[in-house]
């Protein structure tokens, strides 16, 4: 094969200016974008993942300009889009030096040898000055290309978004030859509402990139076949039929008129390997209808490719496919988009894996074309968004929970400070296990701490209120007890007075009887006892007065007894109220315990349904001390026993399945660990047979 020939397929890599000769099928979109460049300074390109937005700009549009007409700065978010923009403007090409402070090249504006008076007196912003210096250094129109712009909304905070919008407004006002091109996945267009409100030009010139239809696929295939320097040729006269055959295979049984570009790229590479058997992609290959038919039913090309690479990397790294999937899962978000990570960040997400093993794995993933490495950002990312959607299916419940915790925090921080609420206690409880694995920013950490402090103050205040109410109830009960004792004393004194009155009455009656006897004796000796008769009458009158006094005292005693009884009744009622308050307090405490019990039971049920048995057992055991009766405790103990049994069954099934899968690919050494772990749980004939097959 001639050394001038080249392999014409880019697999999942984007096309660049150097690939102009092998970039086919996008002529209409390239021309439309080229015309827009002269109509506006702000262009929005959108389309589904895998439609080739990046290639359209970096190859299609770039090839329409001569090098002296085009200074393109491709900018990705990195850690912060505003910082990435500043970095791109400060060092626009390798070896470019930053200008000394005050050296703004304004003297180039009028061609004179002296600085312009107007320009030296006018104070430009840092961003405007950077753009001016950049243009005067190169004398080329500047194209600021923000690729995968959705990352600003998936990973960025509101402050970062607001700052970038202000930067765009400033760039559009700068009167410099600057074009801004934003490339975004169409499902994130709704996130641009605030952007368009502040920058109305945003949606005035936009271009939607459609998926590949039959005509475009035939154009790609025919174009490749016509290249004299390509090591891939097409069967003469069958170019259109081969293109249609490829389209039909990729479309499968789906009723659709389009296919995704990444599927086409992967399939063309797969077809070449099927024909040439050359993994170095150096030898010539002839695409024929017969060779295409030999491919059979191809199924899901990207899924098959990814599964093959997972198995291959598992063998290369001498580990299980599950470990490979665990390594890949952190590189995608819950939405199935790319989430670039450094090796250090990946290790913080997976602390159970040795750093040297992670380093070897990352290199293997690069070699397999699953990940690519960004030298500038020192980060790894999934090779393509379409591949990221496939990897998203590898995320287990723990990965999803980790990302949900991070998403929950980021979403809360997007709200304006004046409208933002602290995290609820339930949210804090959910996030707590994952905070150590999340790379939280200063504002995020601060808001979590503020939320914790807020609820601690609330709990302390509630506890203080409960203590005060309890103390108040105790004091009231003590006062009522004192009143009851006082009433009892009054009643006792009233009874004593009543007894005294009765004794006085009895004495008065005795005196009256004695007076009567004296009167009879006086009749016998009237003359001798007149004085005594008069005295008897006086004594009788005194006795009557004493009787009246005794009656009055008896009435007073009865009134005092009634008052004492009423006071005792009120005291008893107040005491009952105090006891009722105490009962309500105890009932509130029991209700709190029941609520906690229900929460732990709900958590346990949720964890159990997700087969997170260790977490479920912890929740059940936390619930057990809160059970109030024997029946509830018995139910929880039964649930714990059943959950432990489910865990054993699940561990047995997982270990058995993993072991048998490894046996199928002749990884006996790795399989033995899983099979023996399963056999420890319970005996199984299939496991014994598998171990015997491996000689154990």
Quick structural summary:
The chain has 696 residues and is α/β, with parallel strands linked by helices. It contains 25 helices and 11 strands. Strand 10 and strand 11 form a beta hairpin.
The largest β sheet comes out as: 5 strands, parallel
The best one-word shape is: elongated
Helix content: 55-70%
Residue windows where pLDDT falls under 50 for at least 5 positions: 93-105, 107-123
Number of helices: 25
**Average pLDDT level:** 81
N- to C-terminal distance: 51 Å
Relative strand content: 5-15%
What this model shows, in words?
The protein has 25 helices and 11 strands. Helix 13 (301-316) crosses helix 14 (321-328), helix 15 packs across helix 16 and helix 23 runs antiparallel to helix 24. It has helices at 27-37, 53-61, 81-90, 117-121, 126-138, 151-154, 158-173, 193-198, 214-226, 239-251, 261-276, 289-294, 301-316, 321-328, 343-349, 355-367, 385-391, 397-413, 425-431, 442-524, 526-609, 613-623, 630-664, 668-681, 685-693; strands spanning 42-47, 71-75, 142-146, 178-185, 206-209, 212-213, 232-234, 258-259, 285-287, 371-374, 379-382. The two termini are 51 Å apart. The model is unreliable at 93-105 and 107-123 (pLDDT under 50). A hairpin with a 4-residue loop joins strand 10 and strand 11 (379-382). With 696 residues, the protein is of the alpha/beta class. A 5-stranded parallel β-sheet has the order 2-3-4-1-5, with helices on both faces. It has a two-stranded antiparallel sheet with strand order 6-8.
Give structural attributes:
11 strands, 696 residues, elongated, 62% helix, alpha/beta, two-stranded antiparallel ribbon, 5-stranded parallel β-sheet, 25 helices
